[in-house]
Amino acid sequence: EARALTFPDNSFDVVYTFGVRMHIPPTSIYAVRNELIRVSKQWILNIECLNVTPVMFGYDNAAWYRNPALQNKVTVRKVWNTPFRTKDTRKQYQVVLVEKLPSTNNE
Question: pTM for this one?
Answer without folding.
Answer: 0.80
